[in-house]
Write a structure and sequence with these properties.
By secondary structure, the chain is α+β, with helices and mostly antiparallel strands. The chain is built from 4 helices and 15 strands.
């Protein structure tokens, strides 16, 4: 229980604050990240012979909790969804009950559903099938503005369940480390960058041990630490943590010892 409390302490305050923050800003931020990733891949592939993938965030499987009538974004058509219908969430709004998440329907079309009508079933990460190429990673981080107060930057890829460490500066990042990880699961997810719009996530503090979570590098109360408990086979494949990001002991130690305070943490 102490581990759970330690990883959820900041998450709880963010979610409570989110209930008063409205829904539009989070939905816009989600969409902006999605559009930016697609634009970066398109522009890169138009000008380079070696192609890159479009980076995406973690998808989720959820169920509806009521009979709903939703509007298809692409056509404006109204569609009925029955209660307990399984849906794929392609952009999750983390503003708890106040949030609105983007849903992909079976036909590939999209709509929006308020979080209060969704219950989270499981995350759909793709890390088990492999990671993004180095070229894709560099195109993604250097194709947008990612500023750090140090010459280090961490990108936590929720979809691939990887922690990527870069050195350099805005639009000139070099990948130096990639570690398999396990981020926050269903009801205790690792919050992505769409949640925080006024200030960036960054390395706020470090502590060698928080309870049994050794080599703890915090970015918003939650943080990166050594893998605790059963399920190490899930690293790089499946989120099972309590909002924190678990990596192996030696990798948590390397991040703790080498990535300085105030370094940018980009989560998506």
């Amino acid at each position: 229980m102490r581990k759970l409390r330690a990883c959820l302490v900041a998450l709880a305050s963010f979610v409570l604050a989110g209930t008063f923050a409205g829904t539009a800003s989070a939905s816009r931020a989600d969409k902006e990240l999605q559009v930016t990733a697609a634009k970066i891949a398109q522009e890169y592939n138009d000008s380079h012979p070696d192609k890159v993938e479009t980076v995406k965030t973690l998808h989720w499987i959820a169920r509806t909790t009521a009979n709903l009538k939703v509007t298809v974004e692409e056509t404006g058509e109204e569609v009925k969804l029955n209660a307990n219908k399984k849906v794929r969430v392609i952009q999750r709004d983390y503003h708890a009950m106040a949030g609105i998440s983007e849903i992909q329907l079976a036909e590939g079309q999209t709509c929006y559903i308020a979080n209060k009508y969704l219950t989270w079933v499981k995350p759909k990460a793709t890390g088990a099938s492999g990671d993004y190429s180095v070229t894709t990673k560099l195109a993604f981080v250097n194709g947008q503005r990612i500023v750090s107060s140090t010459d280090y930057m961490i990108w936590i890829s929720l979809d691939k369940q990887r922690v990527n460490v870069f050195t350099g500066s805005n639009r000139n990042w070099t990948l130096i480390k990639t570690y398999k990880a396990s981020s926050g699961a269903g009801e205790s997810p690792t919050l992505d960058n769409s949640f925080k719009t006024t200030r960036y996530y960054h390395v706020k503090w470090k502590k060698q041990a928080v309870d049994s979570m050794t080599w703890f590098t915090s970015f918003y109360g939650s943080g990166i630490h050594r893998f605790v408990g059963p399920g190490k086979k899930n690293m790089g494949k499946k989120p099972i943590s309590h909002s924190c990001v678990r990596v192996s002991n030696k990798n948590a130690k390397w991040i703790y010892e080498n990535v300085p305070l105030h370094s940018r943490v980009f989560i998506w």
